[in-house]
Amino acid sequence: MVMIEVGAVADGSVLAGGAAGERVRPRLERIVLEAPPGSVVVLNFGDVDLVTSSYFLAAFAWIWTSPATRTRDLFPVLANVNAESKDEVALALDAKGLRALIGTYADGQLREVHPSKLEETDRETYRLVEQLGEARAADLFRTDPRIQPTAWSNRLNLLYGYRLLRRQKRGRQLVYSASWR
Amino acid sequence: MEPSGTVTLDALYSFELSLATSRRGTPPAVNDLADEDVGTAAEFLALRWLWMRDHRQDLLEFIPELAQWEALRILRSLMQGCGNLPPSSQQRPQRQASQAGRVGVHELAPVGTAAWEPGGSFLRFQQRFQVALREAGNDRRFSYMLAAAFQEMASNAVEHAGAPIPPIACFEVTDSEWRFTVTDVGRGVLSSIRDNPAYSATRTEKEALKLVVQDDVSRTGERGRGRGFTQMFKALVDRRAVLRFRSRGTTARWDGESPTAQKIRVEALPTSRDGFHVRAVGPLSRR
Lengths: 181, 287
Fold this sequence. Notes:
The complex is a heterodimer of chains A (about 180) and B (about 290). The termini of chain A are close together. Chain A has about 180 residues and is an alpha/beta fold. Chain A is elongated and about 50 Å long. Chain A has helices at about 5-10, 20-30, 55-60, 60-65, 65-70, 85-95, 120-130, 135-145, 150-160; strands at about 1-5, 15, 40-45, 50, 75-80, 100-105, 110-115, 135, 165-170, 175-180. Chain B contains nine helices and eight strands. In chain B, a hairpin with a 5-residue loop joins strand 1 (about 95) and strand 2 (about 105-110). The interface between A and B is medium-sized, with 29 and 32 residues.
């Protein structure tokens, strides 16, 4: 797990405006892209009073979409986002069609981690994977045979694309698990 | 030292002339400018100082003209700091009596692109505004919401004005009120918003001003952007404030509680000057 204290990196507790977000992005890129492959990257907003959607888009959205983070198989989690900022972050994620894991971080542990704004079918898929610990499309088909393995595979792939699940290749099969665990 | 960009005489004189003539159609005496214009006057002085610095003019010839203005104090601080914000050792804003007799904190600074770096001068400037609000008795939430609105306005000016010189940001916090302004001498909102194909048919500055104060309306058209004014309105929910936005020859005004984009009154001015100016003033708000 790589912990990024957002307030410290951005050097402030009020993060507003695209101009400021753009200026902090290079600093974030250096930190994030130094994370070992497969890492969970926790963006800890515990010392941030407010982050606006324009700042978030400029400074952070790339983490979910950048080829570099995908190549390195990095999985971001937003931690300790306060009530004031949650609406702004949700707006920013929605603007880019992104989904994120949101939770709390305290005493060295991530807790109450859940995905933001998922469609019901995607939410259910995520829940099942969490429940099973790890799952292949075939496992989910056994859970609910009304949905064909190909469809389950597509859902899993979508959640992997959202960086909500991680996956490993075992033999010829892809095995998925919650990305933050 | 903040980079000044290219300070053109035309841009400066245009700003100066329009400020001087906007109220009566003829240049008023220096002392006659109303309090409302003091913030703008201070910004004009900063622009003049930037021009004089770039053209190596002697500042002393302007001092008698400025002697009666509160803005003289600001200009002097600019002269002493060579345009820099106070040194980093001065982490807390200094309360002092202004020439108008108001005790408070008053700062003004150009907002060049370098100022937005983490730890940069504008972020420190905005933090001092926040500290000043808190020390004046405003609650923590209001202080950071207003600081965010201030930063969004300044970011707008940097990102969209297309001006030859940096915008100027100013704040003042006294025992009875707070205020901030951001001014640029760029192209104004009509020219800016037309960059977005969705608004390319916008014809007047008035139409453009009505558009840009609304949520999700931006020059780029990027979703999630265009929320700077919304941030201002959010900060002022259940709060009294006087807002004034000016784009070239059009102004939008609000005086009351809980401003919204729909309630703001937009009207034409008798004269026009380059750029965009936002001014927000409100009473001290203790909760």
